[in-house]
Design goal:
Strand content: 35-45%
Largest sheet: 6 strands, mixed
Order of helices and strands: EEHEEEEHEEHH
Distance between the termini: 43 Å
Helix content: 10-25%
Number of strands: 8
Mean pLDDT: 84
Structural class: alpha+beta
Low-confidence stretches: 97-102
């Protein structure tokens, strides 16, 4: 179930601000299928500036959370702070038709510019937040320069 939803007709024209708490259960649910990444049992925060011009909505803000990330060297979990910037223009309607093998030029251009689409009168932020959080996690996370690596596993 989506927790963070903006009803576009209810948004004020111009600039408004919102703050959301990202609960530990929400983070756990969003990261449930991410191997080696989870919530650290703490809450996160999402501060958002919303600028509405008709049906176009500009979202700018920051996502902060602490994740439990598995180190690729020692396989232990460590705290990983996330501080992600959100800067997305939301436009109404469906995007260009997608094919499994190639992107349409217009779709590729929208992706490059930080443009997303929403359907109906609602903008669901849950997937956007999840993506912003996951994009901050390195592909090969390690817990630090003093990581013991696999040596501690071999010694046991």
């Amino acid at each position: 179930m989506d927790q963070f939803v903006l009803n576009v007709p209810d948004l004020d024209e111009g600039l408004s601000q919102r703050s959301y708490e990202l609960s530990a259960p929400w983070l756990d649910g969003q990261l449930a299928n991410c191997d080696g990444i989870g919530a650290f049992g703490t809450t996160g925060k999402f501060d958002l500036d919303i600028t509405r011009r008709g049906s176009q909505v500009l979202l700018r803000g920051r996502v902060n959370a602490t994740l439990a990330v598995r180190c690729v060297r020692c396989l232990g979990d460590y705290e990983f702070p996330v501080d992600a910037e959100v800067d997305v223009l939301m436009l109404p309607g469906r995007g260009p038709a997608k094919t499994p093998t190639a992107k349409d030029d217009a779709e590729a251009e929208e992706d490059d510019l930080g443009i997303e689409r929403y359907e109906g009168d609602q903008i669901v932020l849950d997937d956007l937040l999840r993506d912003m959080i996951l994009l901050e996690v390195p592909m090969n996370p390690n817990c630090g320069d003093d990581c013991p690596g696999w040596d501690h596993l071999i010694a046991e």
